């Protein structure tokens, strides 16, 4: 097993250095080789773009740090080519329990229905996530990683929105400085973002006056693989405690300490071990693997786009750890941004498409900050009235379902539904289900259309993503309507690469008239049609980041072409 926490990576000279340096404007430079920077660089490279990734360090993270990765992040990892490794190593879970003192208040299931490829969450130490992403990045020949390359200057040149606009980065290395030019720069360089500071920008929001202790404990334990949260437990009175299982027999325990706790003293084994012992009992053997004290803020930049510099992940927004909304929202930033940069650089979309990255992800950040703030206020009430309310809710929640909706031990991360996105085309007909324009696509089990084929079940999300996709629901053996055939034919011959997926609702041959290369699958359990509210002939236009941008009961060429232009910010789609 590789110890990702001890790996170091060599600095090497690049083509921009030395007396014979060749100066050229790179399409994209990503700053920061953390999880979000790596995911963004991989996604861009998979779109065929040459990418340079720079980092001021030469190591991966140490300590577990972010550990809780949502189903949406796992879906993204699948598309990036490393999802299976994440799930195989991680600890999968769907169930959580909430306690008050030593009594169980209630149990919840974050993925109560079957028919999904991935679990609700996987717990996995951040150094594994970074390691698996890095190994995937190293497989891509058009992705160059430059270690020990610190950004010390940022200057923008040219007219914004035109092809002459670019960014000049001053890079400090062990061999001295050099200039790195890029059409666009993605700043994924963390909460202290040097790029943000160099540009004189700031984040705004709220800092919470509380401290928490993280103790990663290695032990053999009988706790189930669930998320357990205690309010005012007897082993840590008047505070809260969170317990999660990680791989390698490591358990994450978060202890609320209060604002007056001394962060230096509380990290010492003499203070940590008794707290852990009080939770586990006197006979459980354990050892401390990593200890940290943290405070937290809910902050975001006013705008995630500044000219040709785009901010993603913690550099753009920061939330409290309750609800696992930090890293997961950062991966959603990366998937939103990568396809838009690719379309702009390939001249298939206008530069205005990048403005929608900012507006969509600012909307999502506000939603995450709102939920994160509410969780923090419930977990750590700052007034006597707030505490009375919280305790009353917990008392009622033991018997009454309505009160459980008010309990907030961390509203766990779900992708934002981009209802107001300008890339959406509004419904013209009535649909059932939650796959509205702006929603991230739901998964469903499929079967290969060849009835003689054998093998593992197929999944809908595996057929979507990376490019625009036309998702057609049709009846096996039936002929396509003329409007649908014309729409598919027009899209197949259009300027934007499209893929088509036909989901059949029965046995029999695929309809004639599907474009060459269409992926034909069967709705194995009827769940695809159910989740998409789809009847025969329904057509969905899916963005490269697996978000719905339009849907129709019956597609016709003009409507679909207008929707595609709108999704690319092409003029004339108002």
UniProtKB/TrEMBL annotation:
Keywords: FAD, Flavoprotein. InterPro entries: FAD-bd (IPR002938), FAD/NAD-bd_sf (IPR036188), RIFMO-like (IPR050641). Residues 27-371 form the FAD-binding domain. The keyword Ribonucleoprotein does not apply. SUPFAM superfamilies: FAD/NAD(P)-binding domain. Pfam families: FAD_binding_3. Its cofactor is FAD. GO terms for molecular function: FAD binding; oxidoreductase activity, acting on paired donors, with incorporation or reduction of molecular oxygen, NAD(P)H as one donor, and incorporation of one atom of oxygen. It comes from the Bacteria. The keyword Signal does not apply. NCBIfam families: PRK08132.1 (NF006002). This is FAD-dependent oxidoreductase. It comes from Paraburkholderia tagetis. The lineage of its organism: Bacteria, Pseudomonadati, Pseudomonadota, Betaproteobacteria, Burkholderiales.
């Amino acid at each position: 097993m590789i110890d990702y926490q001890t790996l170091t990576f060599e600095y090497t000279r690049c083509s921009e250095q030395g007396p014979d340096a060749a100066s050229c404007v790179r399409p994209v430079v990503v700053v920061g080789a953390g999880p979000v920077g790596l995911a963004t660089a991989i996604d861009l490279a998979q779109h065929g773009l040459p990418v340079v990734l720079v980092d001021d360090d030469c190591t991966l993270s140490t300590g577990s740090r972010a550990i809780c990765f949502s189903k949406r992040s796992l879906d993204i990892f699948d598309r990036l080519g490393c999802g299976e490794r994440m799930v195989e190593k991680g600890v999968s879970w769907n169930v959580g329990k909430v306690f008050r003192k030593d009594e169980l208040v209630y149990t919840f299931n974050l993925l109560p229905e079957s028919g999904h490829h991935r679990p609700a969450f996987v717990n996995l130490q951040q150094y594994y996530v970074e390691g698996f992403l890095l190994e995937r990045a190293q497989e891509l020949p058009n992705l160059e990683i430059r270690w020990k390359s610190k950004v010390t200057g940022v200057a923008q040149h040219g007219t914004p929105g035109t092809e002459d606009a670019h960014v000049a980065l001053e890079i400090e290395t062990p061999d001295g400085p050099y200039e790195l030019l890029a059409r666009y720069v993605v700043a994924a360089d963390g909460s202290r973002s040097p790029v943000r500071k160099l540009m004189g920008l700031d984040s705004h929001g709220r800092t919470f006056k509380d401290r928490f202790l993280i103790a990663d404990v290695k032990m053999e334990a009988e706790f189930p693989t669930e998320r357990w949260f205690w309010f005012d437990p007897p082993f840590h009175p008047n505070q809260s405690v969170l317990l999660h299982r990680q791989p390698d027999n490591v358990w994450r325990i978060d202890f609320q300490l209060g604002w007056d706790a001394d962060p230096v003293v509380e990290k010492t084994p003499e203070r940590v071990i008794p707290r852990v012992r009080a939770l586990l009992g006197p006979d459980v053997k354990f050892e401390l693997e990593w200890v940290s004290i943290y405070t937290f803020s809910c902050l975001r930049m006013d705008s995630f786009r500044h000219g040709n510099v785009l901010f993603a992940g913690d550099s753009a927004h920061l939330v409290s750890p309750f609800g696992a909304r930090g890293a997961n929202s950062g991966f959603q930033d990366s998937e939103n941004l990568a396809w838009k940069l690719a379309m702009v650089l390939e001249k298939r979309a206008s530069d205005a498409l990048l403005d929608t990255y900012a507006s969509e992800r600012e909307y999502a950040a506000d939603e995450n900050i709102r939920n994160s703030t509410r969780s923090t206020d419930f977990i750590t009430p700052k007034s006597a009235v707030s505490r009375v309310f919280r305790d009353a809710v917990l008392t009622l929640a033991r018997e009454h379902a309505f009160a459980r909706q008010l309990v907030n031990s961390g509203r766990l991360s779900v992708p934002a539904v981009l209802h107001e996105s300008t890339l959406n085309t509004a419904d013209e007909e009535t649909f059932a289900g939650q796959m509205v324009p702006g929603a991230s696509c739901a998964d469903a089990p499929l079967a290969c259309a060849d009835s003689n084929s054998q093998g593992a079940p197929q999944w809908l999300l595996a057929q979507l993503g990376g490019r625009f996709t036309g998702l057609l629901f049709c009846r096996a053996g039936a002929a396509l309507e003329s409007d649908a055939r014309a729409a598919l034919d027009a899209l197949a011959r259009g300027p934007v690469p499209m893929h088509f997926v036909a989901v059949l609702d029965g046995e029999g041959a695929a309809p004639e008239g599907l474009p060459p290369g269409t992926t034909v699958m069967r709705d194995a359990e009827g769940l695809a049609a159910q989740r998409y509210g789809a009847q025969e002939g329904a057509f969905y236009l899916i963005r490269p980041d697996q978000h719905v941008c339009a849907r129709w009961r019956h597609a016709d060429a003009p409507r679909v072409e207008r929707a595609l232009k709108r999704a690319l910010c092409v003029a004339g789609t108002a």
